[in-house]
Amino acid sequence: MTSLLTLLFVFYSACFFLFPLVSVYQERRLWKSPLPRLSLWGCIKVYWFNTFWFALTQFGSLILLPFFLLGANVEQPATVWVERATAYLVTYFFVGPVLIRGEENLPARNDDNANKVSCVFIANHNSQIDLCVVYFIRRRFKWIMKQSIVYLPGVGLLMRMARHVFINRTKGNNKESVKKMYAEAAKALVSGKSIFIFPQGTRAMVGRLPFKDGAFNI
Fold it and tell me: Of the four, 45, 91, 118, 210, which is 20 to 30 A from 56 by CA?
């Protein structure tokens, strides 16, 4: 039993360094003509961007885990403290400063959910960077994300704790999953929590993919 737990621990730890390689491959594929190819230095930054993203979310989720297992609602600290702090750190270190224009047009900040004004945030999805820079609007929201995110080390556990909305895009299960997604999104909006969604469904650096209708149906 001990050897099995050790093996699982080693495998899980290795994922923190192996999964970022997959992220580098995915990101590099997006940089195609007429854009220049992603440079070696760019690939290195993408690798460490993801490694630190996984590690910091794992650290934060482990702090919250005892409270979560005891039945406490850790949604607010998971989203406002851990997710946002992680996004700020990896963006500052591996991307650069972020400029927000038109912030006066956004609803008031709702970190403590005291403000019941909610909305649906939508954005183009060009790069992994999008996942972090959106936190600079400093508004609390629930993601609508693909189910497979839960398998990412660190990130997956934190997303579960934060009670984000997941959708299963596997054929055959999609219809029921979409129905559940709409119900959970509506419940969040009524309770004063905003929703954030990338309506294109996937990333694209060249050209603009059409928006799917999910965000507008919500």
Answer: 118
Q: Tell me the residue ranges of DSSP E strands in 77-183.
A: 120-122, 141-146, 165-167
Spatial separation of the C-alpha atoms in residues 205 and 209, rounded to whole Å: 10
Q: Which pLDDT tens digit goes with each residue over 190-213?
A: 888 899 998 887 777 666 777 777
Q: What is the pTM of this model?
A: 0.89
One-letter amino acid of 116:
K
Q: Whole-angstrom Cα distance, residue 139 to residue 79? A: 10
H-only helix segments in 70-173? 75-76, 84-94, 130-133, 155-161
- Euclidean distance between CA atoms 38 and 19, whole angstroms: 18
The SS3 call for residue 109 is: coil
Of 69, 75, 137, nearest to 108 (Cα)?
A: 137
Report helix, strand or coil for 143: strand
